[in-house]
C-alpha cells in the first residue's frame, strides 16, 4: 500500500499524495469548483482530474519537476523558462473565464490593511514597508483583464527538459492583470524574468512587474506567518522586500 504524504496542510486546506494521486481537501468549496472549471478552460497542460467529491478533489501527478523553489536558485534552463513564458502567453490570450476577478479597489484596500498590520507588529523595519508600499503603487492602475492563473508560484509550473508538462493549483484563476502572473512566477527569481519574457513576448511593463513583486510580498506575509510559514526564510518574501531598498 502506498504511503500517505502530507504535501501541505494548514487551517484552510490540505493536500495529500497517495501514490500517483493528489487529494486536495479545501474548507471553501468554491475553491475546488473554480479549479475544476479553470482547468477545463485553460489552453495549456493541466493535471488530469480523477474525481471530485466535495470537499475532496483528486488529481493525477503531473510529470516532470517544478520550475524551481522559492528561496533556491532555479535549475531549469533558459529554454524551460521561455517555454513557461509561452504557455502563460497562451493562457493570457485565451477567452476570459465567466466569473469575476478582483477589483482594483479591493487590491488597494488589502494592501493598505496588510501594510498597517506589518507596521503595527514591527515584523520589518518601517522604512522597508514604506518603500515597498511606494513601489507597489505602480501596480494599482486600471488593467485590461486577461485569463490569469492567479497564484502562479514557481512551484506550480512543471517542466520536463524544455517543455511545460503541467500547471497546477488553479483555485485563484480569474480575469485579472497579466503582469501579476508574470510577477508571481518570477518572485524571488527576478534574474530569470528575461528568460521568461523570451517566450512570453516583450509587450510588458517591467516597472509594473516589479511593483507586483513588492505588493505580493507585502500582502502575503501576514497570511504566511499566521499559517506557519516563514516569509523571512532566505530568498523569500522578506528578502524580496529588503532587496527593493538597494534599488535607486
Automatic annotation (TrEMBL):
Coiled coil: none annotated. Residues 37-211 form the Aminoglycoside phosphotransferase domain. InterPro entries: AGP_Transferase, Aminoglycoside_PTrfase, Kinase-like_dom_sf. The keyword Transferase applies. Keywords: Kinase, Transferase. One of its GO terms (molecular function) is kinase activity. Transmembrane segments: none annotated. The keyword Nucleotide-binding does not apply. SUPFAM superfamilies: Protein kinase-like (PK-like). PANTHER family: AMINOGLYCOSIDE PHOSPHOTRANSFERASE DOMAIN-CONTAINING PROTEIN-RELATED, AMINOGLYCOSIDE PHOSPHOTRANSFERASE-RELATED-RELATED. This is Aminoglycoside phosphotransferase (APT) family kinase protein. It comes from Micromonospora taraxaci.
